[in-house]
Design goal:
The structure holds 2 protein chains of 2 kinds. Chain A is an alpha/beta fold. Chain A is built from 11 helices and 11 strands. Chain A has a single domain, classed as 3-Layer(aba) Sandwich (Rossmann fold), CATH 3.40.50.970. In chain A, strands 4-1-5-6-8-7-9-10-11 form a 9-stranded mixed β-sheet, sandwiched between helices. In chain A, strand 7 (about 175-180), helix 7 and strand 8 (about 200-205) form a beta-alpha-beta unit. Chain B has helices at about 50-55, 80-85; strands spanning about 5, 25, 35-40, 60-65, 65-70, 90-95. Helix content of chain B is about 10%, strand content about 25%. Chain B is of the alpha+beta class. Classes of the chains: A alpha/beta, B alpha+beta.
Chain lengths: ~300, ~100
Amino acid sequence: MTVKDLAKDEFFYGHKACAGCGGSLAVRNALKVIGKNAFAVLPAGCMSAVGFNFPQLCFANNAIISTFAGTASMLTGIEAGLRAKGITDFTAVGFAGDGGTADIGIQALSGAIDRGDNILYICYDNEAYMNTGIQKSGLTPFGAKTTTTLAGKNIHGNIRPKKNMFEIAAAHNIAYAATATIGYMEDFLTKVKKASGLKGTKYIHVIAPCPTGWGISVSDTVEIAREIVDCGLWYLAEYENGEFILNHNPKQFTDVAEYLKKQGRFRHLNNDDVDLIIRSRDEKWDKIRNNWKFGKD
Amino acid sequence: MKPYLREKENFGFDDIPENTSFEAGYLVSVNSGWRSIRPVVNVEKCVGCSQCYLYCPDGVISIENKKAVIDYDFCKGCGICHKICKLNAIEMEVER
């Protein structure tokens, strides 16, 4: 799916997100793909904070704020309610951040996948609780400095690796799961389009950089979202019919150190830390290349 | 179709809905005051490739007659469009 196939309508407009916000770009373009029949659920988090400032209401389609833990369960309810009313032409879509997906909302999401509810769940991953002032979440990568994982002399930021949320969703034997980044927008749009046409539970995990939390310039959001894939710290993949499919297999990775040094949250890392990150990346890619199928690039 | 700016800005107590539902796409304030720099399209260089439109987080760029047009009411001046443009058709100028 390319920009030519995209509807001209805007469904997320006039919102109060920071300049250069990656999450708002993901929400905006996903809603443009799904169209006016989207019923959006947004848990407490950046996108509900910037989208619903009464009377400034920035969603043009039906949208509701859920509890932090209840994105997926509210989607279940909306889907069942609309079905009971005889409405068939709709997409129940949730937009939760990384904390709302991998930490606080994981049991509701797990339950929804288990029931096989016909919903689309999109996790925009900015790798920390950005809305409340950059606290570590389960999806914060190793070495990142947040206000709860400080960088000092002995401990260099977050000591734990990023939770593998894509494979956790896939391990439920979900109908469709995918990873994406806002840096490669056509790939993300294609996956949203594909997911909204499928029956069953769909999960899309999209990397959406946050200039404030990552310590980058507001104009670098898209560039850094491309670089995370180019340097191999993120991958574009799908899970369907019980199989993992790699969409993009880089022939050569770009420099990880360069990617890390661009961001304020990684600036304290020394060479040993960078080597550790490169080693874990190579281990991950060995597993991917040995076990996953290759899709067309 | 997109949310648009309404004239009514001041909400009294009676205007506040009793339940938590209200009209969708109801805008009362602009974001133009957030900017310190503004993007300006060079119409001679712009070919309407739509990349700036695709990557604008605020959706303020539209393509009209194969040229990018910016809604300055809601542009926050982040500069993503300036960086994404391969033809350097968008320049950032200091806001006066």
